Amino acid sequence: MEVLRLVAEGQSNKAIGVSMGLSALTVKSHLARIARKLGTGDRAGMVAVALRTGIIH
């Protein structure tokens, strides 16, 4: 959820990785899993579904 919240704030994979102590590739992997679970194909879609369903605020 933290990765998704930071995506919603407009942060890049690299910036998310730095703030969470992860590599950009790990962030990318997390986002790919989130996209599959939410049934979306891009960052904007993930954020839209997450906001609509209350996963993030």
From TrEMBL:
HTH luxR-type domain: residues covered: 1-54
The UniProt record lists the keyword Transcription: yes
Keywords of this entry: DNA-binding, Transcription, Transcription regulation
SUPFAM superfamilies on file: C-terminal effector domain of the bipartite response regulators (SSF46894)
SMART domains: HTH_LUXR
Gene3D superfamilies reported in the protein's UniProt record: Winged helix-like DNA-binding domain superfamily/Winged helix DNA-binding domain
Swiss-Prot/TrEMBL GO biological process terms: regulation of DNA-templated transcription
Record InterPro entries: Sig_transdc_resp-reg_C-effctor, Tscrpt_reg_LuxR_C, WH-like_DNA-bd_sf
Annotated Pfam families: GerE
MF term (GO), any: DNA binding
Protein name per its UniProtKB record: HTH luxR-type domain-containing protein
Source organism (scientific name): Streptomyces avermitilis
